[in-house]
From TrEMBL:
It comes from Amblyomma americanum. CDD domains: DOMON_DOH. InterPro entries: At5g54830-like, DM13_domain, DOH_DOMON, DOMON_domain, Spindle_Org/Thrombomodulin. Residues 28-135, 144-251 form the DM13 domain. Residues 278-412 form the DOMON domain. Residues 1-23 form the signal peptide. Keywords: Repeat, Signal. It comes from the Eukaryota. PANTHER family: KNICKKOPF (PTHR24036:SF16), SKELETOR-RELATED (PTHR24036). This is Protein to be involved in spindle matrix formation. Pfam families: At5g54830 (PF25489), DM13 (PF10517), DOMON (PF03351).
Length: 683
C-alpha cells in the first residue's frame, strides 16, 4: 500500500514536470500586437471573456491632446465609434502608461464580438495612434459547461459543473449527505481521482471535512497559484478510505477565461506552517522551553484573530480554552491572553468575572509576548511567544511538544472597547497539531488576492411604527451575524440580541406624551450571565451600563430601567424571566442561509423559564432626545434605536424597511407559544 502511494506520487510529479506551464502562460485568447502609428503606443491584446480586454505591457507617452480608448465596428478606425472606459472605469483622456497591464471592460454590456477594432484615438484631431483588429468569427473565452459529478456514493450528485474561469469551478445543485467524515473537495492529476491529490477549500474557505449539502449551488476557488490547468479532475473524496464519492474531469484549453484573482506569498522565518482557513495561516517554531507563533490572516483593520489551546483534551472546544487574541491598535499590535469560561462577553457575575475574559481579570497572568507585526496588501501578521508550560497560571493550558495539541481559533470584529465580539469565522471541526514534529513541514498555500469578501447582504432593517402599538415584548435571540445585528446596526455584537415583538432589533418609533410598556423577558438570574439582560433605555449606542466605569457613566444618560440608591449605586429594575429564541438544530449560526428574516425566525423555537416578565413603563417627553436606545444592562451591543417623534405617521417611509403591524403585536402577546404565526408585512 505504501509503495503504491509512493509510486502514485512519483507519477504525479512526473506529470507536473512534463506538463506545459499553462497556468503561467494563460492570459486569455491572444489577439495580437497593437499596431503603432504615433506616441510610441504599444502592447499585446488578449480577450479575457465576452466583455473584457487585457492589454499587457501597454505603453503610451501621454502627449496626445484628446486621446481615448476607442472601439467600433466599421471597416477601419474612424470617428464612428464609442469610448471604452479605462482600467478604473473612467472616460477621461488618457494619461501616460509605461508597460502596464490593464483590463478594459466594454461599456453597456457590449460584447467583443460586436466590434471590429480597438484604437487609441484622438477625437479632436481624428488621429489614430495605434490599433488592433479582432479576427472575424472569433469566439472569446467564456465559462465552459462540462458534465455532472459522477454518482458513486454518499448521496453525491449535481447539475452540470461549470468552469467559470481558470481558478473558479461552479457546482450547481450540489448534494452530499454529510454522513461520512474525513471527506473533502479533492483535486489532482491523472486519468481518475487518486490519493495523491490534495484537498481544496470549500465555498466558504474552510478545509474541514464537508458537511451536508442539499441542492446548493457553490463556487470553489482553487487556492494559491493553482489553476484548472494544474489539475485533471475534481472529486468529493474520502481521505480515510480513499473513496471517490463523485467526480468530474477538468478539460483544458485557451477558451477558458483567465481569472482576475492573484496570489500573495507571505515570507516568514518560522519553518512550520498549517493552513487553518483559506484566509488564515499558523506558523511556529519551538525554541527550548518557548514556542514562537505567527498568525497570518486576511483580516480588516478592526478585526481580531484568536488562537489557542482547546478547552477539551480530545476535541476543539471554545469553552475552557486558553487563547491569545491578536489585534491592531493604531500603530501597535497586541496579543492578549484570554481565558474563555463561557460564551458571552466578560462579565462580573456576583463579584467574579466570567465569560471571554483577559487573564488579568480572572487573577491570571499575561503569558503572551508580542514580538512584531506587519500589515501589507490586506494581510496582517502577528508574531508572539510564550512558554510551552506555564505552571504559575492555572488558566493556561499546555503546548504539548511530544504529541497532538487540540486547538481553537476564530476571526471576528472587536468593539470600541478593543474586546473580541462574536466571531464570524471559526473551525467547523476538530483541529489538532503536533507542534514538536521532528521534521519541519510547510503545508500552506499562497493567499488569494482580488477576492471580495463573501459577506452576505444584510436583511432590510426592521421598523415598528404604528400608533396602535404601545406594548413591546422584549426577548433574547440569536444576533444572526452579518445578515442580522451586524448588518442592520453596523456594530459587532456578543451573539445575542433583543427581539422586540418577535423581530430582531427593530427601530422602534414612539410619540412624546404617550406611555409605552415593555414586557421584559431577558432573564433575571445573574448566575447565568449569558442570559441575564435587564432592559434599560439610554442615549448610549453601546449600552452595557453595568460594565462602565464611574467616569464613563458620567457621559451617558439613563431614561428608564435603572434605579439609583442614595449613594448613586445603580440597580436594574426591568429583569424578568428568560424567554429566548433558540436554534432548533445542532448547527448554530445558520442565518446566512436564509434570504429573509421571517424564514430564519421560523426555524427558531421559543424557550421560556417559569416566572413572570418584568414591566417597564416609559413616557418620552419634550426633553427626550430624538434618538435613544433600548439596551442590555449587562452586555454592550444587544439593542438598537428608539426614534422619538412628536407624532407618529403610520405608513410613511422607505418601502424597503419592514413594518410590524399592531396585529403582529397582538399575536406576540396573546399567542407566544404560536409565535411562528407572527405576521410581518412589507410597508
Amino acid at each position: 500500500m505504501a509503495r503504491s502511494a509512493v509510486a502514485a506520487r512519483i507519477l504525479v510529479t512526473a506529470c507536473l514536470l512534463l506538463r506545459p506551464a499553462l497556468a503561467d502562460q494563460h492570459e486569455g485568447l491572444y489577439i495580437g500586437k497593437i499596431n503603432t502609428y504615433a506616441h510610441q503606443v504599444s502592447g499585446h491584446v488578449y480577450a479575457i471573456d465576452e466583455y473584457t480586454i487585457l492589454i499587457k505591457n501597454f505603453f503610451y507617452d501621454g502627449l496626445g491632446q484628446d486621446a481615448f480608448f476607442w472601439a467600433g465596428s466599421s471597416v477601419r478606425p474612424s470617428n464612428v465609434g464609442f469610448i471604452v472606459p479605462d482600467e478604473e472605469g473612467k472616460t477621461n483622456k488618457l494619461q501616460p502608461y509605461t508597460d502596464k497591464d490593464i483590463y478594459l471592460q466594454l461599456p453597456n454590456r457590449r460584447k467583443i464580438t460586436s466590434i471590429r477594432w480597438l484604437a487609441i484615438w484622438n477625437l479632436r484631431e481624428h488621429a489614430n495612434y495605434g490599433d488592433i483588429f479582432f479576427p472575424e468569427g472569433f469566439e472569446p473565452p467564456s465559462p465552459r459547461r462540462i458534465s455532472e459529478l459522477s454518482r458513486r456514493g454518499a448521496g453525491v450528485r449535481s447539475g452540470t459543473v461549470v468552469i467559470v474561469d481558470s481558478k473558479t469551478i461552479q457546482i450547481p445543485e450540489f448534494y452530499f449527505n454529510g454522513n461520512v467524515s474525513d471527506t473533502y473537495f479533492w483535486v489532482g492529476l491523472g486519468p481518475q481521482p487518486n490519493s495523491a491529490g490534495q484537498k481544496i477549500p470549500n465555498e466558504k474557505g474552510y478545509l474541514e471535512s464537508l458537511g451536508r449539502y442539499e441542492e446548493k449551488t457553490i463556487e470553489l476557488t482553487l487556492p494559491g497559484k493553482m489553476t484548472v490547468f494544474d489539475i485533471d479532475w475534481l472529486s468529493v473524496w474520502n481521505k480515510e478510505t480513499n473513496e471517490n464519492y463523485g467526480s468530474v474531469i477538468i478539460p483544458h484549453g485557451q477558451d477558458i477565461p483567465p481569472s482576475k484573482l492573484g496570489s500573495l506569498k507571505h515570507e516568514s522565518r518560522l519553518p512550520n506552517c498549517e493552513q487553518l482557513h483559506s484566509t488564515l495561516q499558523l506558523r511556529w517554531e519551538i525554541q527550548g522551553r518557548s514556542i514562537s507563533l505567527e498568525l497570518i490572516g486576511q483580516i480588516e483593520e478592526d478585526e481580531y484573530i484568536a488562537f489557542g489551546i482547546s478547552g477539551a483534551p480530545n476535541a476543539s472546544k471554545m469553552v475552557g480554552a486558553d487563547v491569545a487574541v491578536c489585534y491592531l491598535d493604531g500603530h501597535y499590535a497586541n496579543a492578549v491572553d484570554y481565558n474563555i469560561s463561557d460564551r458571552f462577553p466578560c462579565s462580573n457575575v456576583l463579584g467574579r468575572y466570567r465569560g471571554v475574559c483577559p487573564d488579568l481579570k480572572v487573577e491570571g497572568k499575561e503569558s503572551y509576548q508580542i514580538l512584531t507585526f506587519t500589515r501589507k496588501d490586506g494581510v496582517t501578521s502577528f508574531i508572539f511567544r510564550r512558554t510551552l508550560l506555564n505552571p504559575d497560571d492555572d488558566g493556561d493550558q499546555i503546548f504539548n511538544p511530544d504529541g497532538d495539541t487540540y486547538l481553537v481559533w476564530a476571526i471576528g470584529k472587536y468593539n470600541e472597547f478593543k474586546e473580541p465580539s462574536f466571531h464570524h469565522t471559526f473551525p467547523k471541526g476538530t483541529l489538532k497539531i503536533n507542534f514538536g514534529r521532528k521534521e519541519a513541514e510547510d503545508n500552506c498555500f499562497e493567499f488569494t488576492t482580488g477576492q471580495t469578501r463573501g459577506r452576505p447582504a444584510p436583511w432590510p432593517p426592521f421598523r415598528i411604527r404604528d400608533k396602535a402599538v404601545d406594548t413591546f415584548i422584549a426577548r433574547i435571540g440569536p444576533a444572526a451575524g452579518w445578515k442580522g445585528y451586524m448588518g442592520i446596526t453596523g456594530h459587532s455584537g456578543p451573539g445575542e440580541s433583543w427581539y422586540m415583538n418577535g423581530v430582531l432589533v427593530p427601530e422602534i418609533h414612539v410619540q412624546r406624551g404617550r406611555t409605552y410598556t415593555f414586557r421584559v423577558e431577558g432573564g433575571n438570574n445573574p448566575h447565568n450571565a449569558r442570559y441575564y439582560h435587564p432592559l434599560y433605555i439610554t442615549d448610549s449606542r453601546a449600552g452595557g451600563y453595568a460594565r462602565l466605569t464611574e467616569q464613563e457613566r458620567q457621559s451617558v444618560k439613563v431614561y428608564a430601567g435603572i434605579q439609583f440608591d442614595r449613594r448613586g449605586r445603580p440597580q436594574p429594575s426591568a429583569a424578568g424571566r428568560l424567554c429566548a429564541w433558540v436554534y432548533n438544530t445542532s448547527e448554530p449560526r445558520q442565518a446566512d442561509e436564509f434570504a429573509t428574516f421571517p424564514k430564519f425566525r421560523n426555524t427558531l423555537r421559543l424557550q421560556c423559564d417559569d416566572g413572570q416578565p418584568a414591566v417597564l413603563s416609559w413616557s418620552p417627553n419634550e426633553s427626550t432626545p430624538d434618538v435613544v436606545y433600548y439596551q442590555s444592562y449587562t452586555t454592550p451591543y444587544v439593542g438598537w434605536k428608539i426614534v422619538v417623534v412628536d407624532e407618529i405617521v403610520t405608513g410613511s417611509g422607505a418601502v424597503s424597511h419592514i413594518h410590524v403591524s399592531s396585529a403582529s403585536v397582538v399575536l406576540a402577546v396573546l399567542l407566544p407559544s404560536l409565535s411562528l404565526l407572527l405576521r410581518i408585512n412589507l410597508e
